[in-house]
Design a protein that fits this description.
The chain has one domain. The mean pLDDT is about 90. It is mostly helical. It is built from two helices and no strands. The termini are far apart.
């Protein structure tokens, strides 16, 4: 594997623009992965806050309802 990477880089020595494009693509993939992970964490936090809010509203509504008549 190490030799195949070395051979790839040797083949691109004559074409530095291609090597730069490969490096930029790898950097872009890394950046997009990082942004995706951060977005997923943010969505998870927002979802937890939403569920917490719903729970609190349900508790308040439960406390506001009159007790049932036991006749």
């Amino acid at each position: 594997m190490n030799e195949s990477v070395r051979g790839f880089i040797d083949a691109l020595k004559d074409q530095p623009l291609s090597l730069a494009l490969v490096a930029m693509n790898l950097g872009l993939l890394g950046y997009l992965y990082y942004e995706g992970v951060q977005a997923a964490k943010q969505r998870q936090q927002e979802l937890e806050l939403l569920y917490q809010n719903r729970h609190e509203v349900a508790e308040l509504l439960y406390k506001c309802t009159p007790p049932p008549d036991h006749r």
